[in-house]
Amino acid sequence: MAGADGDDSLYPIAVLIDELRNEDVQLRLNSIKKLSTIALALGVERTRTELLPFLTDTIYDEDEVLLALAEQLGNFTVLVGGPEYVHCLLPPLESLATVEETVVRDKAVESLRKISQEHSPVDLEVHFEPLVKRLASGDWFTSRTSACGLFSVCYPRVSSTVKAEIRQHFRTLCSDDTPMVRRAAASKLGEFAKVLELDYVKTDIISLFTALASDEQDSVRLLAVEACVSIATLLPQEDLETLVMPTLRQAAEDKSWRVRYMVADKFSELQKAVGPEITKNDLVPAFQNLLKDCEAEVRAAAANKVKEFCENLPEDNREQIIMTHILPCVKELVSDTNQHVKSALASVIMGLSTILGKDNTIEHLLPLFLAQLKDECPEVRLNIISNLDCVNEVIGIRQLSQSLLPAIVELAEDAKWRVRLAIIEYMPLLAGQLGVEFFDEKLNTLCMAWLIDHVYAIREAATCNLMKLVEKFGAEWAQNTIVPKVLGMANDPNYLHRMTTLFCINALSEACGQEITTKQMLPVVLKMSNDQVANVRFNVAKSLQKIGPVLDSNALQTEVKPVLEKLASDTDMDVKYFAQEAISVLALA
Amino acid sequence: MMGDRPSPPRAMSSAATTSPSVDKVDGFSRKSVRKAKQKRSQSSSQFRSQGKPIELTPLPLLKDVPTPEQPELFLKKLQQCCTVFDFMDTLSDLKMKEYKRSTLNELVDYVTVSRGYLTEQAYPEVVKMVSHNIFRTLPPSDSNEFDPEEDEPTLEASWPHLQLVYEFFIRFLESQEFQPSIAKKYIDQKFVLQLLELFDSEDPRERDYLKTVLHRIYGKFLGLRAFIRKQINNIFLRFVYETEHFNGVAELLEILGSIINGFALPLKAEHKQFLVKVLIPLHTVRSLSLFHAQLAYCIVQFLEKDPTLTEPVIRGLLKFWPKTCSQKEVMFLGELEEILDVIEPTQFVKIQEPLFKQISRCVSSPHFQVAERALYYWNNEYIMSLIEENSSVILPIMFSSLYRISKEHWNPAIVALVYNVLKAFMEMNSTLFDELTATYKSDRQREKKKEKEREELWKKLEDLELKRGLRRDGIIPT
Q1: What does the sequence similarity comment in the record state about its family (chain B) (predicted)?
Q2: Which of residues 16-45 of B touch A (CB under 8 A)?
Q3: CA–CA gap between residue A321 and residue A521 (Å, rounded)
Q4: What DSSP string runs through B152-212?
């Protein structure tokens, strides 16, 4: 009987291995993805003694297959017999951790990290840690790179002698000859620091951090900035000034914009890690400099952080710091020469109003919002409009509506369809904030104009927009303002516009309810079944299928059924197809 | 980024007749017309916001002072040229910019024609002046996703000065009086490292100058050669495995092409490793088309040096064979033909099976350019002779694809080419050809049967897994 250990006669290893060797990569990949099934068939013992050695020996394949293998092995502990035997998985994963392709290697490291947790402390020292050491002193950079990700998972659970060795290996890799390895070490510095004893953080980690932060390659230096966040979090406040701040100050003024960019990008995290005192004394001036940086990329990254930075300032003198130090820089950014900077700022600037309160908002921020609403770059205007809700809460939207309208109208007619698409998506939100009267008066025409846009994506979005508006303003409003216009388009000479009528009906019927659908929409749809253009006719069939559930059975039988039957014998095969589909879905056969 | 896409052209919206044949409003005519940029974009990261206007005291021309005083004046001029101007601000320091430009011009002429000017003190000053001007962090790319095939490169704004500095430096390196033994104190590893980073410049003019500079340095400083090769390795590895972004790959490969040419035999392990672990993986990069010609040249150089490398190279190419990108597949086929042009028959035999399995896949590609490129191999006399010698191995590999395409391919030109190939095979080895034709059907049936067996095996295995699962969850008893 096929017991817990598989069955030799049913599943000879040779057959399974043939599958793993199949000439077709896709088949090989499929087999590897089902490796657990194979292991299950073989049972734990034969998996350990036959399958794993085979995998270890024959690792030369397409990276895609290797990636799948690396992933599978991370979940293999049960299949080799539980934690007791988990170290059997190390040899194939070790080979995978040395291959060239980064994604494969990363996956192998991820799996190794996972199974490290399943090792007993003894096995960790006997099997796992030696593997880490071998990788750390490998010839080719790939194995050393992989080693960097493994130190932190074994460090907490080994004896103090082994700990000392691990620290030594990490130190060596931090000053490796190849920048690839130094980058890997730098990116794991923060994680490694977290598992070290505080004394070693102060000695070992700080010296490594300082060295990496002044590496000759900016790609290494910028990774040290990331580590800075974790390190600063670990150290007691009184040590920060001497151990971390000199390096951080230097990074904020690095000659490479990439490093400064990284500082700007991590600014909120840094701010939290160093605490309020250092923020006031050091980070505020540093932030000002980043907002005034000569490279637009850096200014944009800093501009993105304006709101978060201000929000997290210590409350006792937050307003004063913002008003005297930050706001002047922000004012300058509003008229920056680079559109990405302006648009980054526009995406967060509205958030300042909640922090500064009504009076300051009206006096200082409102002029900036208004200026940005008139910006030449559509993205800037769009970002302001999409964040109106923040201002709405503080000063109400009326203050802005005068300037808002021209901005919306201009965006609605922008030459780039993606801009038009974006503003459509904010329409329901705006409608809610501005109210139905304002909407009918000023915005309704725009919404209808989008229905005959020459880009399909816009017509589609406009249709969807109408549905959301009806959900907001109700069926009665729909009946009075939009349904007549939509139905009017059914007689348009352009077949694309006629189809838009159908698409609108599809979207609106449910929100409008049975009465409007039956009395006003259905006759139009039925009439369109005589259209000359086949595309319109088969969309009639599709629409009938869509609105069918909203109609009563009488209308279905007496009005819809004959029309669908006629369409089902149309000369065009697509029309026939969709008519038949509708008949069967609506159960009219 | 959102703003970067051109909007499709506006469609006519006034088609006003009801006749279906005329009622064609084409909303889909997407011509990818890219508006020509108003002006080429310029960028520069040299500016360190000094703010203050720069004042340089004009010096007399070198030719106007007595010869003994010239070296001293030369040094002073070098020092003045260390001053770097902001070219993004087109209005500032106009006079001084012009003064520096003419001084640099004078220096270029001076190092070209003068004799005895290169005192030992001049070396550090020259290197300092060059370093101050050319070494800088390159500015961020203008477009978010700079696509070298589509986008115009951003040009270096300070080029009026930078070009002259490069020109001067090359003349200096090429000067007859130039002594590498003195210069090596200043042109050191750190200098070379910074020089190599500049190859990422978007400005093709700058990369062209850098190519010459690096070539001269490689030629004259023997002590730096291994270091330069290693750093290029690092740049390539980072490019392949980390960023996929580096503008100067083609230029660096061009330099390497001539370096490989000069390698001594037998090749060192370091060089073979470079071929297998760096050059071959370069084929995987998305932007291969930008440097493929230079890369293929390097590969062929290696194989001409040492034919025993053929097998690892071809295996490497087969491993990285493009799966979805037909343009790249055509490039690979082109490179493979270049390799086959120089292959030794003994090497060919070693690699023919996997190679022709791939070629057989290419021949049956539904993309006719791929199929066509592969079928062109049969027009190559040398390749034909190799195929003929080994027809007993190659014919069985190719036969079923060719036979199938001759009946099924959608493109008549491909079918015609395949007929020619089949004809050639028939003439080569008619006995084998007849045999394969006769067994074609039964072979297909055998394949189908095997396929069925596979499916059954997996089904059984999955049933087993399911049962185990149920047993584990206690749904059916063990």
Answers
A1: Belongs to the phosphatase 2A regulatory subunit B56 family.
A2: 16-20, 23, 25, 27, 45
A3: 60
A4: PPPEETTHHHHHHHHHHHHHHHH-TT--HHHHTTTS-HHHHHHHHHGGG-S-HHHHHHHHH
Closest chain B residue to the Cα of A62, Cα to Cα: B319
Q: Is the dihedral of CA B110, B116, B121, B126 positive or negative?
A: positive
Alpha-carbon distance of B222 to A62, in angstroms, equals: 39
What pLDDT, on the 0 to 100 scale, is given for residue B352?
Answer: 94
- Number of Cβ within 10 Å of residue B83's Cβ equals 19
Domains of chain A: 474-588 (1.25.10.10)
Picking from B3, B190, B454, the nearest residue to A416 by CB comes out as: B3
CB pairs A-B closer than 8 Å: 114
State the alpha helices, DSSP H only, in A236-326.
Answer: 237-243, 245-252, 257-265, 267-278, 284-291, 296-304, 306-311, 318-321
Residue in chain A closest to B45 (alpha carbons) equals: A295
Does B476 have pLDDT greater than 60? no
User: B155 - beta bridge partners?
Assistant: B42
Q: Are B106 and B62 in contact (CB under 8 A)?
A: yes
Q: Which residues neighbour B143 within 8 Å (Cβ) at sequence distance 6 or greater?
A: B1, B4, B151
Per-residue pLDDT for B33 more than 50?
Answer: no
Q: Any idea what the Cα angle at residue B342 is, between residues B338 and B348, rounded to 5°?
A: 100
Contact A385, A422 (CB under 8 A): no
Residues of chain A predicted below pLDDT 50: 1-9
CB contact under 8 A, A257 and B461: no
Confidence of residue B45 (pLDDT cuts 50, 70, 90): low
Q: How confident is the model at residue B26 (pLDDT cuts 50, 70, 90)?
A: very low
More confident: B372 or A441: B372
Rounded distance between C-alpha atoms, residue A449 and residue A441, angstroms: 14
| Alpha-carbon span A27 to A446, nearest angstrom | 54
Q: Nearest CA to B201 among B247, B164, B234? A: B247
| CA terminus-to-terminus distance, chain B | 59
- pLDDT digit string, tens, across residues A449-469: 899 899 999 999 999 999 999
- Confidence band (pLDDT; 50, 70, 90) for B30? very low
Q: Please determine, for residue B272, whether its predicted confidence score (pLDDT) is greater than 60.
A: yes
CB atoms within 10 A of CB B211: 17
How many other C-beta atoms can be found within 10 angstroms of the C-beta atom of residue A102? 15
Buried b (16+ CB within 10 A) or exposed e, B373-382: bbbebbeeee
Q: Which residues pair with B42 in a beta bridge?
A: B155
* This prediction's pTM: 0.80
pLDDT of residue B16: 37
B457 touches chain A (CB under 8 A): yes
Q: Name every chain B residue with its beta carbon within 8 A of the beta carbon of A219.
A: 238
Out of B234, B357, B465, closest to residue A180 by CB? B234
pLDDT value for A95: 92
Minimal C-alpha gap between A550 and chain B (Å): 31
Predicted confidence at residue B469, as pLDDT, reads 64
Q: What is the pLDDT of residue A37?
A: 82
What's the gap between Cα B391 and its chain centre?
36
Output the six-digit token pair for A157.
Answer: 């659970």
Nearest-CA neighbor of B96 among B59, B132, B128, B61?
B59
* B141 pLDDT more than 80: no
Is B25 close to A496, i.e. CB distance below 8 A? yes
Residues of B with CB below 8 A from A19's CB? 454, 457
Contact flag B49-A19 (C-beta cutoff 8 Å): no
Q: Which amino acid is residue B36, in one-letter code?
A: A
User: What's the first-to-final CA gap in chain A, in angstroms?
Assistant: 54
